[in-house]
Predict the structure.
Amino acid sequence: KFIGEESFGCVFDEFSNEVVICGKKGSEAEKYASVCGLKFYDEEYAASDFYLDEYTKTLPNLKNGTTVSQLKEAIEGASVTDKDGNELLDTDKIGTGYIVTIADGEDFVAVVLGDVDGDARMNSVDYLQIKGSLCGVLSLENEFSSAADMDKDGKITSIDYMRIKNTLVSA
């Protein structure tokens, strides 16, 4: 059924076993979802750097070099702890695997594209980890696999390897 120019369609959410309408906030798609009692997924918000993915409990779009203060500007009341549970200062950079706690106490795992080892930096170690994954000598899982997926196509490929390599060479 046609539900408006700004609609993107629907997806089946395998986590909740529900149909989710995708579109822009305020569009006919959102109205349709509301009238039909369906979940709505705001495509523009999902593309933002500070998107909180309720299904995977991650922040999947963080950019390399994002600081705690930048996150706190976008998500009021948030705090960040590193992999060892130490709370970060406002000037600290966020790494993959760090825990972001929002104001209501809910936790989300940070995913920083390119920070495959979770040290809050994109460097040759991350590049080598993607290479190791491609060669089958290293298994990347969960948020670390997501951080290695530079083109966000759901798998780690030579394209991801080249993207991180090009990013490092141009830096």
About this structure: Strands lie at 7-13, 18-23, 39-42, 58-62, 79-81, 99-101, 107-112. The longest strand covers residues 7-13. The chain has a mean pLDDT of 85. The first helix runs from residue 28 to 36.
